[in-house]
Here is the input.
Amino acid sequence: MNLELNEEQELLRRTVREFAEAEVRPLARELDETGRFPLETFRKAAQLGLAGIPFPEEAGGAGFDHVAYAIAIEEISRACASTGVILSVQNSLFADPVYRYGTPEQKRQFLVPFTRGEKIGCYALTEPQAGSNAAALRTRAERRGDRYVVNGTKAWITNGGVADAAIVYVNTDASKGEKGITALLVEKGTPGFAVGKEEKKLGIHATACTELSFTDCEVPAANRLGEEGEGYKIALSTLDGGRIGIASQAVGIAQGAFEAALAYAREREAFGHPIADFQAIQFMLADMATEIDAARLLARRAAWKQDSGARFTREASIAKLFASEMATRVAHKAIQIHGGYGYSREYPVERAYRDARITEIYEGTSEIQRLVIAAWVLKSYS
Ligand code: CAA
Here is the structure.
């Protein structure tokens, strides 16, 4: 693994940073305050290839690797965590499984328009009563001729309120438990498919995070992704890539908070000095910089492993666990450095603190990441 970015990755990093400064950061506060989904920004990001970063051009993508994907999600999230996860879900949770499992016809309909950013996708696994225990999902799909009839409710679906299509994980054979789970591509507008309530959340307010409900919703059997019973594996392997996206989002949130704290420490005076002169502040800045660096390296290692074609479940979980908990610690210190102003909505670190917290929860809580890592530890060390 080369720790230096190659020319292409560095060029992408600079381009995305410029885009984020010009188009994403200026809206971040308003999006936080209103919860408006940033559709215009999504379309502009798509023009740069950010709706399909690691997919080849024939699949409508930008032709970069997954390291470049991690870099891009970090750079966007440094300016706005909502926009970061919207793009991460589009790439990792929607386009990736369609790319890996889709038939040519499914790719024409459900991949190319999405990687180009003409359409928005979402990933519907979680249910009101099934989060960490994803195998306990209750949404049912009964095969009738050339259709599946779907009934059930999905919850906490990022992009749910605006998505043109969803990958919906359903149970096609309740007697088989997780081996009865199947993935279906469901288009917006399909009768019986409705968007439910939007969640009112602590942070990442602009992600159109909603419930989705299915009532006798008829989905063509041709929209089944993979085989019947293959859905659980599709869901979990998809989350490996998603977790790199969330690790990168966490690194970006932390980097943004760190830079704000550094600037404030240089300008704010106390006891006749800029507070950056005091060791108490310097030590916090040093810890923040060290932890961000470590998390960034873990995220890029996981992405590099993904690019190598080998299984990267462990690396993705390690990166996600460390980066998400790191982001909460860094945002906490960023507020501390700002003192009372850090607690005010006038400064961006209060938003970073709220936005960081979700990275420890979605796409697998820290506890789930520890389970995945522990399984590997117990298998590998005798
Ligand atoms: N890649 C490929 N295959 C995998 C896999 C992976 N990463 N993980 C598991 N599998 C396979 C296993 O090999 C096994 O296959 P066999 O039966 O053929 O051997 C099968 O899948 C089941 O594996 P496990 O027995 O290990 O699975 P489990 O049921 O014990 O998994 C769990 C438990 C780790 C808790 C898992 O359910 C999990 O990750 N839960 C968390 C769910 C989650 O992250 N939800 C987030 C929702 S999405 C979200 O937040 C999106 C958003 O809006 C941003």
About this structure: The mean pLDDT is 98. The domain at 121-229 is CATH 2.40.110.10 (Butyryl-CoA Dehydrogenase, subunit A; domain 2).
